[in-house]
Design brief:
single chain; about 170 residues; alpha+beta; Peptide Methionine Sulfoxide Reductase, Chain A; 6 helices
Amino acid sequence: MRQIYLAAGCFWGAEHYLQLINGVVSTRTGFANGNTQDPTYKEVYTDTTGYAETVEVIYDPEILSLETLVSLYFKSIDPTSVNKQGEDTGTRYRTGIYYTDPGDYAVAKKVYDEVAAGYDRPLAVELEPLRNFYPAEEYHQDYLNKNPQGYCHLPQALFDFARKANR
């Protein structure tokens, strides 16, 4: 199994979307690349900790390539939006691809550059090594599975797309 950390705005919808992709084995919501130890959601919500709401993705590379996973990730975000996805605003909602294996950089960068070529302004997606990750509180884990009517900035059509994307 392999892992990558993806920040795509509010982690409730991002986690749900990523869970639906064939080859994703598990997900966990949390906070990545911030400046404090063991942050709480309440602390991260203040936008003073430097953390991004992020989803840890464990995937099976025999079923899902990193290139495909990153390509599907880009379909769930506005890659040019700074600190905003949907109606959610703040540094905690920034977008990012955080890797733990240095070899993953080249794969993610290839997809990043392909996406960037389709825009006339720079992408606002961080692409950097994971410095730290702290899991969010339990009530944030699998939030939309537990609360099907819960808030989500992503449209239902995107979830339908994810279910069929790489089958």
